Amino acid sequence: MRRAMLRRCATNVASPLIPSTGPGARVVLVAFFLGAPMLSAFTSLPRRAALTAVSVLGQPVWAEEKSPQEVAAEKAAAQLSLGQRGDELVLPGWFAGEWACFGELYKVETASATSAAFSSALPGAPALLKKSQEAVGTEAGEFRARRRWLSSSRSAPGGGKGVLEDGSGVPAGALAAAYTLGGPTPRLKPLNDDWLVADRWRLTAAGAVARADAEADASEALKALRVSELFEVREKDQQELAAAVRVVTLWKQAPLPEEGKKKLDTSRKLMQAIQTVYVLPEPAAAATKKFASMTTRFVYSPILS
What we know:
16 strands; alpha+beta; disordered N terminus; four-stranded mixed β-sheet; twelve-stranded antiparallel β-sheet; globular; 2 domains
C-alpha cells in the first residue's frame, strides 16, 4: 500500500516536468527524500520520454535519452548533404579553394537492347554520343577548366566545416550531363532555372546528394566522397518527360607529386574523380536499364592563391 502511494505521489510530482513526446517509454526518476536518494522506475507513464532526472542545486535536470533508431538515423543524416542541384550541396572542407581541372574521356557505352528506345526518346542523341565515342583517347576527349569552392557556415557530410561550389558558372554536374547529350562540343545556355543543350533539350535539376564514403577508413589522411545528381530531360518546347540523366562522381584525395610541390599549394592535396553519366529512360531507372553511359577521369590540382 505504501509503495503504491509513493508511486502515485512521485508520478503526480514528475508528470508536469516530463515532456510529452508520445506513448510507451520508461522514465527513471531519481528523487531526493529527506537527504537520501530514492530510485523508482516507471514503465507505464502515458508519455514517450526516456529521461533521467537528477538534482543539481536543488533543481531537477532532465536529459533525453534517444532510441537506437534515432541515433542511427541522425548518424546517417550527418553523412549526407541534399539539394535540388549540385551547387547547393555542402561538400567537405578539403574542396575549399580554386582548382585547375583536367578531364579525360575514358569510356562511352551504348546498350544495344535499348538503342531503338534511345533514338525514339531523344532523336539525334545517339549520333552525338557516337562523336564522343570517337573522341576517346584523342585531344577532342580532353577537358580543362577552373573550379572553385567557397566557405559555408553549414556542416559538411561527415562533420567539419563545409564549402559550396561557386555558383557564378554552370554547375559541374549540369555540364557533365550536357557533354553526354550534346557530344564533345555541346552548346549549353541557361534557360530560366534550367539549361538548354544543343538548342534541343531542356535539362532540369531534379535532386542531388553528397555522401561521405562509407568505405573510407576514418583514420586515413586521404578522404573520399560520392556525389549523385539527377536531371530530367525534355524537348525544348515540351512538358512531357523524354529521359533522365544521372551523374555519379566519386571523389578522392591524392598526395601531390614531388615535381609539382614547387608550383602548387602544398597545404592542399590533389583531388581525383571518376565520373559516370547515365542516360536513362526515366528518373527511377537502374543503371542496368540505361540507354548509354559516359565515363570521365578527372584530376584537380590546387592553384596557389
